[in-house]
Amino acid sequence: MHLLDSLRADHAEITAIRRDIHAHPELAFEEHRTAALVAERLEALGIETHRGVGQTGVVGVLRAGSSKRAIGLRADMDALPIQEKNDFAHHSRHAGRMHACGHDGHTAMLLGAAAQLAAKPDFDGTVYFLFQPAEEGEGGAPAMIADGLFERFPMDAVFGLHNWPGLPLGQIAVHHGSVMACADRFDIEVRGHGAHAAMPHQGVDPVLAGAALVQALQSVVSRNADPQDAAVLSVTQFHAGDAYNVIPDVARIGGTVRAFRPELRAQVEDAMQRVCAGIGAAFGANVNFEYRRGYPPTINSHAEADFCAQAAAEVCGKAHVLIDPKPSMGAEDFSYFLQEKPGCYIWLGNGPGEGGCTLHNPHYDFNDEAIPYGVAYWVRLAQRWLACG
Known about the structure:
- The chain is α/β, with parallel strands linked by helices.
- The chain has 2 domains: 2-181 and 297-385, Aminopeptidase (3-Layer(aba) Sandwich), CATH 3.40.630.10; 183-295, Alpha-Beta Plaits (2-Layer Sandwich).
- The protein contains 11 helices and 16 strands.
- Helix 2 (11-23) packs antiparallel against helix 4, helix 7 (206-224) runs antiparallel to helix 8 and helix 9 packs across helix 11.
- Keywords: Hydrolase, Manganese, Metal-binding.
- This is Hydrolase.
- GO terms for molecular function: metal ion binding; N-acetyldiaminopimelate deacetylase activity.
């Protein structure tokens, strides 16, 4: 706990940075102010700084000793298109934009860790501080990879974290294997033949076919996937017609698929294709099915998860490290980094009550009391990975 105690002196400064970022939220690939703030802080610490990685990403490079070992630590910077409903002093200054997921806290904590490690570089190797844009659905991680992230900054492993409302303050959760699901989307167009509602036999009703399709899609998971292998298929949109007495030509259906295993993800997609073809044939409608793969599942490597659990125990005590809780059906583009490098993505307790309401909520605020734990975790992780001697 000595490391935690030493960080409390910097708590007010890091909190001020976090609240400044919260007050000035920027959406995906628009994080110009935030990226400039990050780059200027890193440069002031004497850390080699690279701007514009993956459009608006920033990478800091801190070297010590002579080892070629290197570790990557990642924080996301973007906000969400949500109208904030908080009235505290650091509320969003921009209508329709809000840090409702805690990326302001993630960015501030990694800056705090950079300051600690730069002030006392008691490690042997290189720490890469990865400030990533556009996590919220726009794919900032693959943008950084496409921009040569791992070629320009060769690291042995990469690590991430996310604050987790509901997990008590001072606790850290570590998963071996799956921690977050994939996030895929689908659109289905059911094209029939319009008719007068009083004379349905003269047309092909896409609403009826669509309703049957929605029902049939519920069997994709319940009757195709192993009951112990989690997946979710949710139909969230059904649009058809605009008159009471007209059977329309077209019905449109949309939704999302979540799964933890790539194999199950493919199995669900194939089953949906078969269901769409079958319903189209049964009702005489033309069914067009489009499946778009989004973020892949976030899957930690076991050795790195063990390593993170050990580092976390040194920060908050072994009793406060939660091993392999239920993973989340939410998604995270840190998954792309983990497809390229071994690593681990952990959850940091954000606590209940103020600062602990659910993510993507207009009343959410990152819990500043979690800052010392996050900074200490990053510092200890880097020190352990790049241990001298």
